[in-house]
Amino acid sequence: MSIDNLRNRIYKRLYRLESWFQDRATRLFAWLYRRPVESRETYETVGGDEVDAYMFSNESMLFGQHTPFGTILLNKHLLSDVSGQTETHVVQHELSHRDRNSVIRGLWWGIIFSMAVGIAYGLYGGLLVLLGVSVGALTKLFAYSAILVVTGIIVNRLEETKAELDALHALGEGDFRAAHEEISTIGERSVVGLILGVLFYPNPETTISLYNKFQQIGLYGE
Ligand SMILES: [Zn+2]
């Protein structure tokens, strides 16, 4: 066997091992988030590529999610009733997250994890206040909590804005607007859901005007 042959065989094995790990890790992640995978489906992107998505079903308003393992989860239940452009919007948005530079993606997951720690600090501090500890004694704890949470919100907002810009770039303004109009009419959002939506996601009109500005300075060319 030639050395090239051997190398190819090793690469193939490694690729299969990586796919196997990616598949198991995605399913475990989805299960931990209480969105167990029901099936795998293939979607066509605007560019004509085929992408693999892991499907889950639940009543939440979450259309899709990317995982730390370079895969995407889509809510079959929500996507079954929407138009093609909305489905495309959701897929392109999640693909944008998925295809982010791996260093940035790693930092993002780290910051999201830190935000969860920040929330836990805040809740713990609140509990101590209820138990009679003075707020003054907990200043540091609340400051750490606030820094972690605010950083998480800002970074997440930037990441979501980038995903929205990429989705707009792929769909074009008309379909992007139509998709958002349709999404806004679906289901009922809880108060918490509404607050999180405003904090984390840019409004579609803001995305469009930002996109136009970027185009003027040569970003997002044809
Ligand atoms: Zn997103």
From TrEMBL:
The chain crosses the membrane at residues 106-124, 130-155. It comes from Haloplanus rubicundus. This is Peptidase M48 domain-containing protein. Keywords: Membrane, Transmembrane, Transmembrane helix. The keyword Membrane applies. It comes from the Archaea.
